[in-house]
Amino acid sequence: MGQAQNPETDKSVNPVKIFLLISLQILLSFILFTMYYRREAPASTKADSQDDVTVIAKEPIIILVWSFPFGQRFPLNQCPQQFDGSGCLYTADRTLYSSAHAVVLFHRDVYTSKKQLPQTPRPSNQRWVWFNNESPSHCPNLAIMNNLINLTMSYRVDSDIFAPYGWIEKHNTTMHFTIPTKTKLAAWAISNWNPNSRRVKYYGELKNYLQIDMYGYGRRNLPRNRQSEILSTYKFYFAFENSIHVDYITEKLWDNALYSGCVPVVMGPPRENYERFIPRDSFIHVDDFASPQELASYLLSLDKDEEKYKQYFNWRSEYYVPPQDNPWTVSYCRVCKALKEAPPYRTIASIEKWFKD
Ligand SMILES: *[C@@H]1O[C@H](CO)[C@@H](O)[C@H](O)[C@H]1NC(C)=O
Ligand SMILES: *[C@@H]1O[C@H](CO)[C@@H](O)[C@H](O)[C@H]1NC(C)=O
């Protein structure tokens, strides 16, 4: 009521005042926007190094595969879903070095000389990942890596990035496992025949008591595409590692024995170490026997006792061994997730001290 009669109010709608009000509003918005942006800026930088897919999608984490291990090319950027490759871009193009967030160095391909390592100065946010799948006995010149590496990747559980040769997975429900038809007793495949090694000496005794079919090293042929089919006909497979080290359990156990449906007879780290990865009733350990002869008589007794032999497959109603179709791809795929979770700063003074335990 008073408003209409107030001349002051009438005057307030003049164009100059409106212009001034709008100007003030624009100024205020600008100030508020600036404050808001300043407050948000550090947060988005932080999210960049974390698992914020929307931020990462704009600027991918570039992972440089410095070399293809053993020169074997494998598909990049085809990470199985469970390894979460989202937000990462894998490349083997060394010209992208300067923009790479991580460089994965495969030990065998770089250990001979520092000249094999990247030569251009390292960008401050770039991590070097040391990748190795050999045992310490076959891993020379570790000292070359002193004070260079930020993250380790290997078959050892205590690596920053644990990249095992294989693993078991749990079925969702109890499954029936059909034991492959067995027509033969025992097999062993070996490529590196060293007469002084423990495994070759052990075999030398064992074969006096047991029929063992040897594959590889100029003996029976074991084509890669028929390996599982051929080995599955054996009751036992000798998964003897070339050297004995913590967690050093290779495809001899995972692919040759377990995936093929054989009962593994293992030589490697102690039984407890195996039991970190596979059920205790899934394998036979040579250390459980006082001599090769005792092991042989146990295996022969199992050969005659179908029911007892079958016990070694009970665990398979709960677990299965996934096939390792692209082991290199899968190992490298683990890097992406690890980078998203990695500590902000870390240098490893000596890989040797840790790895050669
Ligand atoms: C088993 O469970 C996983 C994870 O919960 C699920 O992704 C998968 O589809 C299930 N598989 C079957 C055969 O039910
Ligand atoms: C990685 O290690 C190098 C070499 O010691 C170091 O200069 C760099 O700051 C480290 N980077 C990270 C992200 O930890």
Automatic annotation (TrEMBL):
Pathway assignment reads: Protein modification; protein glycosylation
Q: Which Gene3D superfamilies match?
A: Glycosyl transferase family 10, C-terminal domain (3.40.50.11660)
Q: Where is the Fucosyltransferase C-terminal domain?
A: 180-354
**Record field: catalytic activity:** a beta-D-galactosyl-(1->3)-N-acetyl-beta-D-glucosaminyl derivative + GDP-beta-L-fucose = a beta-D-galactosyl-(1->3)-[alpha-L-fucosyl-(1->4)]-N-acetyl-beta-D-glucosaminyl derivative + GDP + H(+); an alpha-Neu5Ac-(2->3)-beta-D-Gal-(1->3)-D-GlcNAc derivative + GDP-beta-L-fucose = an alpha-Neu5Ac-(2->3)-beta-D-Gal-(1->3)-[alpha-L-Fuc-(1->4)]-beta-D-GlcNAc derivative + GDP + H(+); beta-D-galactosyl-(1->4)-N-acetyl-D-glucosamine + GDP-beta-L-fucose = beta-D-galactosyl-(1->4)-[alpha-L-fucosyl-(1->3)]-N-acetyl-D-glucosamine + GDP + H(+); an alpha-Neu5Ac-(2->3)-beta-D-Gal-(1->4)-beta-D-GlcNAc-(1->3)-beta-D-Gal-(1->4)-[alpha-L-Fuc-(1->3)]-beta-D-GlcNAc derivative + GDP-beta-L-fucose = an alpha-Neu5Ac-(2->3)-beta-D-Gal-(1->4)-[alpha-L-Fuc-(1->3)]-beta-D-GlcNAc-(1->3)-beta-D-Gal-(1->4)-[alpha-L-Fuc-(1->3)]-beta-D-GlcNAc derivative + GDP + H(+)
Localization terms from the record: Golgi apparatus, Golgi stack membrane
Which intervals hold domain Fucosyltransferase N-terminal? 60-166
Main localization category: Golgi
Where do the TM regions start and end? 18-37
Q: Name one GO cellular component term.
A: Golgi cisterna membrane
Does Transmembrane helix show up as a keyword for this record?
Answer: yes
Q: GO terms for molecular function, please?
A: 3-galactosyl-N-acetylglucosaminide 4-alpha-L-fucosyltransferase activity; 4-galactosyl-N-acetylglucosaminide 3-alpha-L-fucosyltransferase activity
Question: Which InterPro entries does the UniProt entry name for this protein?
Answer: Glyco_tran_10_C (IPR055270), Glyco_tran_10_N (IPR031481), Glyco_trans_10 (IPR001503), GT10-like_C_sf (IPR038577)
What does the UniProt keyword field contain?
Glycoprotein, Glycosyltransferase, Golgi apparatus, Lipid metabolism, Membrane, Signal-anchor, Transferase, Transmembrane, Transmembrane helix
The UniProt entry lists membrane topology as: Single-pass type II membrane protein
**EC number(s) for this protein?**
2.4.1.-
GO terms in the biological process aspect are: lipid metabolic process
Family note = Belongs to the glycosyltransferase 10 family.
- Protein's recorded name: Fucosyltransferase
Give the source species.
Engystomops pustulosus (Tungara frog)
